[in-house]
Structure formats: C-alpha cells, structure tokens
Peptidase M14 domain-containing protein
Amino acid sequence: MTELRKLTPHSAIPAEQARRDSRQRHLLRTFLPEMIRLERVLAEAPEQVAVKTLSRVALKDIDLPIYRVDLGSEAPDAPVVMLVGGVHGLERIGSEVVMAWLRNLLARISWDGHLQALLKKVRVTLLPILNPGGMYLNQRSNPNGVDLMRNAPITAQDRSAFLLGGQRFSPRLPWFIGDPEQGMEAENQALESVISELLPGRPFSVALDCHSGFGWQDQIWFPYAYRRRPMRRIESVMALKLIWEQAWPEHNYRFEPQSRHYLTHGDLWDYFYKKINRSGEGAFIPLTLELGSWRWIKKRPRQLLRLDGFFNPLVPHRHRRVLRSHLTFIDFLVSAAAHHENWLPQADEASMLREAAIAHWYRDHH
C-alpha cells in the first residue's frame, strides 16, 4: 500500500507555520484532546502501521484530519476487520474504545507471537475519529448540522420514528438527514472510499462502529434499520453470535437487529451492507456497538447537567472500566475474521441457522 505513509513526529517548519500549528495544538488540547492522543499513538507506532489522512474538515479556527490506520495482511483475499469511532461527535467514548484497542494492540505487536501470526492472516483498518468537526464542536452532527448516521441514500420501508428516524426540517434539529441524493457528507464519502477500495471480493469482512446509546445494557446491533425483515445473510450473524457466546458465555452484550428498536432513514451500515453484498461474493457483517449510558447516569445523576454526560462516563474509574471492557470482543472479531472458514455457515447449516435467526429475532414480524 504505497499510498499510505507513516505519521511522523513534529519536524522543523517555518516560523509562521509553527505559530499556526501551535495555535491548532492549543485548540485541540482544549476542544479535541482525543485527536492529540491519537496522533501521539500514531507517531510512536511501529513501521508496519500505515497511516493516511483521508480528508480534512475545515472549521473557522482549525483544520481537522480524518485518519485511516492500516495494519496486518496486504493480501487481496485476506479477511478484513474495520473499526470506526466518533461518527457522532458527542459520543466520544466510541472513539476512545477504538483507540484503547489500538493502543493495546500496538503495545503487544513487538513481542506477542500469537498476535504477529494472526495479523499475517487478517487485515485491520481503523477510522478512530470519523467526525472530528462534530467532536470538536461538541455536537452530535457534523459541522454542517447533518447526522452522519442518517445521511446515506436509503429510505425506511415503513414509518420511522418521528425525528429520531431522520428529519429534513432543519439542521438545527437533531437527526437531520441532509441531502444524500446529492451526495453524502464528506466524512461519509471518506468512509465509503475505504469500504469501496477494501471490502469487495473479500471472503469475509466485519465492521464494528462504536457508539454510545441510551439503555441499561451494551448492545450489538446489526442491519437492517430501514426495514423489519431479515438481512440477506442473517445466518452469518447468528453463527458469529453463537461462537461468541460459546467462548464467552458470561458476556453482557445484547445482540439484536436495529429494527427491533426503531426504523430510520439513511442508515450508513444498511447502505454499505447492501452495496457490498450485492455481488453475492463473500460475506460482510456490519455491527454497531451501542454502549448503555443509562448505567453511568444512574450512578452519577449529576451527569445530566452536562451535555456530554448523557453519552460518556465522566468518572475516571468508570471511564477506564468501559475502555477495558470491550477489548475482548474486538480481539474476538479479529480471530473470528482470520478463521472465518471454520465457522461461517455453508449449505444445510446456513439454512438451519437462518431459520433459527428468524425465530429468535423476527418471530413478531413473520
């Protein structure tokens, strides 16, 4: 991947540019410290980690990069694990979960022979902060007021939740769709460029998009959000759920299609799932991790006085607990992708698992 280059530490630059960079660093430390931490991790990463700036988000006082991080196999038929964070700017904890796993992996990569062997079989791509402008501005949407998770050109087949399912009234209201028919927002176009380049033709790929959502329990959602009928390859999700639960029966995730909660217009992962699986080759499973924020609020009701308190654990020990709680599941996804041929259902088993999935998740709609 010659087009990717390693992010390098600060070097000698002209005085005027140095002053601008110093001001930008000050603004980042104040409003987007996650970007500072990410750049520090990338600057110290080993040579086999490739970094690319996919796009830049220009605000009045600052210019923010959208970073792509790649490591592992470069074989065109290697399975792929994609991790995405920061789609919603208020949900900083999603980006921090992705960054915590990246730090853990980079700390082990020089000595962990098992990890080194695993990365020869699988490709890992991360977009830790997809919406840096929204995160900088401390708002859910991107700087244009568009909710990136409602911005794909796909329409709900049934009545969607009022406002929550996506609205076209105003960017001043939450869940604004924008105008996806004229092209998705720049952040989503950056994500689409990665998916279109990386995933077609692969035998297996899985994406985990990390969010913070209301609820008492951490949830793993999968498509569809635009309709209540099962996704085309629901048996693959059931197979993945079963091997996870067999290996870690004490887990606390709730696996469900998003449609069990509400329908939405413009769901990104519905759009990408349909686009990648249209060819009929390989299997792509997009998952969304929805962290249950109600538990944090219950234990510290004062969080309701702060906008970010609705979506992020503000107490340090609770924050650390969340970051370490999801390392195992992400490690599992990497191992499952690398060895997909050992569990991905075929023929009769696929038919049986599809029936089981429909009975488990869709019995109310069939």
User: Anything to note?
Assistant: Confidence is low (pLDDT under 50) at residues 1-5. The CA atoms of residues 218 and 291 lie 5 Å apart.
